[in-house]
Amino acid sequence: MTAIGTATGRRGRPGHSLDSLLRTAVALFNERGYDATSMDELAVRLGVTKSAIYHHVPSKVELLRLALDRALDALFAVTEEPGAIAGPAIDRLEHVVRGSVRVLAAELPFVTLLLRVRGNSAVEQAALERRRRFDRIVTDLVRAAEGEGDVRPDVDPAVTSRLLFGTVNSLTEWYRPDGGLSADDLADAVVTTAFAGLRTRPAAGP
């Protein structure tokens, strides 16, 4: 099966692209839960027959895999950007946090689905393992920033990482792209709030 990024241009019967199929499926998974959603219900929501869906994907589990990979691929792409690779660790950490907020805003339904995964299938377990790999990247950045003297040393790096992304992940509960707050403004707010308490401060004068 081709990756979502190269498959979104495919067109099938009766005019639904894989991307539109995937977006509808994710919306339904988030509404009803993945296990409670049937292919019949998805076909009704799309206004097509099940055979039209199977033109694009062989199964419901493949829709889940594509959806989870879409969110995870976007998050890992942030860690490969120049701002996440070069420079002081604290700046790279800030870049990853800011970029993750932008991913959440751009791919909100997909990230929401990812955060609800509990490891009930091989696909979900693979997604959880990728999430753990992402968490380790962030924790390593926190640890490096602490070693460089830019992050307060009195909080364990793993705890700092969880607190940072606990804040980011909580945005799925209330953020709406059409609510008047842009992704950049949202990222600025998260970074300003989180890093004000994270960065070390210069010693006070006499």
UniProtKB/TrEMBL annotation:
<feature type="DNA-binding region" description="H-T-H motif">
    <location>
        <begin position="38"/>
        <end position="57"/>
    </location>
</feature>
<dbReference type="InterPro" id="IPR001647">
    <property type="entry name" value="HTH_TetR"/>
</dbReference>
<keyword id="KW-0238">DNA-binding</keyword>
<dbReference type="InterPro" id="IPR050109">
    <property type="entry name" value="HTH-type_TetR-like_transc_reg"/>
</dbReference>
<keyword id="KW-0804">Transcription</keyword>
<keyword id="KW-0805">Transcription regulation</keyword>
<dbReference type="Pfam" id="PF17932">
    <property type="entry name" value="TetR_C_24"/>
</dbReference>
<dbReference type="InterPro" id="IPR041490">
    <property type="entry name" value="KstR2_TetR_C"/>
</dbReference>
<protein>
    <submittedName>
        <fullName>TetR/AcrR family transcriptional regulator</fullName>
    </submittedName>
</protein>
<feature type="domain" description="HTH tetR-type">
    <location>
        <begin position="15"/>
        <end position="75"/>
    </location>
</feature>
<dbReference type="Pfam" id="PF00440">
    <property type="entry name" value="TetR_N"/>
</dbReference>
<dbReference type="InterPro" id="IPR036271">
    <property type="entry name" value="Tet_transcr_reg_TetR-rel_C_sf"/>
</dbReference>
<dbReference type="InterPro" id="IPR009057">
    <property type="entry name" value="Homeodomain-like_sf"/>
</dbReference>
